Amino acid sequence: MAAAMLFGGASAATAETQAEAPQADAAPALIAPAVAPAIGLPAAEAATEDPEPALAPVAGAISIEVGPTEEEIAAAEAAEREAAEREAAERAAAEEQDDEGTETRQDEDSSRSEERSSREGDQDDSSSQQSSSDSSSESSSSSEESKQEKSAPAPSAAKGSSILATARNGIGTPYVYGGTSTSGWDCSGFVQWVYGQHGINLPRGAAGQAAAGTVIPRSQAQPGDLVYKPGHIGIYAGGNQFVDAGNSRVDTSERNIYSGSWTFIRVG
């Protein structure tokens, strides 16, 4: 019996093994492939979102500077010309002011004494004929001046030209306050020297020299006549020119008759 049980158990085991073997040999079931979720690449996204970086300057690059344009050059030249013209105008104005004031100090004493003596002489001459006030005497003297303007004799052209030529010979002589010679003179010293070369003795001082002649209209003035305003005197050269010893900057020169209340005087 025992042998039978052993035999039966072995058969059962063999049968179970054979029964299980076909299961082992059976084809395995199909497994669906796993699909992984899409993963974005941060580096790629950042590359597409960020703007393109600015290019750094290349070492050793050459920079080219463009010079000024023709318009800029012309504007600069025009500005320089305007500045030069303004400077020349200011210099001319300063010279005029110096001309007006330089001789005033020199002639103050002489002109006062000469005018005083002239007024006294006029009063002595007219005292026998009239005893009017100072205002009436001034009006009469002005009427006498107007008569003198009409009756002033015209000098010969040769005489006036000779006086002007002598005046031009003095051009370049230094201006020296109080001087009366070719080594240096002021305005009245110059006029006194010029007329002295022609045998005409004029007093010292611009006012005295003007009083020694006859007032004439500018339209009748000829070269060689005197051009006078309080504090300054010169010799008429024709047109709008005169020869004078102006100041230490211009010395003795022939130049334009600058602005002012000028009187034209004829001597002799």
Keywords:
two-stranded antiparallel ribbon, endopeptidase fold (from Nostoc punctiforme), 51% helix, six-stranded antiparallel β-sheet, alpha+beta, 268 residues
Brief digest:
With about 270 residues, the chain is an alpha+beta fold.
Describe the protein's architecture and organization:
This protein is α+β, with helices and mostly antiparallel strands. The protein has a domain at 141-268: Alpha-Beta Complex (endopeptidase fold (from Nostoc punctiforme)), CATH 3.90.1720.10. 51% of the residues lie in helices and 12% in strands. It has 7 helices and 8 strands. The chain has helices at residues 2-25, 42-49, 70-127, 134-151, 157-169, 187-196, 206-211, and strands at residues 180-181, 184-185, 214-216, 226-229, 232-238, 241-245, 252-256, 263-266. The strands form 2 sheets. The protein has a 6-stranded antiparallel beta sheet with strand order 3-8-4-5-6-7. A two-stranded antiparallel sheet has the order 1-2. Strand 4 (226-229) and strand 5 (232-238) form a beta hairpin. The radius of gyration is 59 Å and the shape is elongated. It starts with a helix and ends with a strand. Residues 12-29, 43-48 and 147-151 have low confidence and may be disordered.
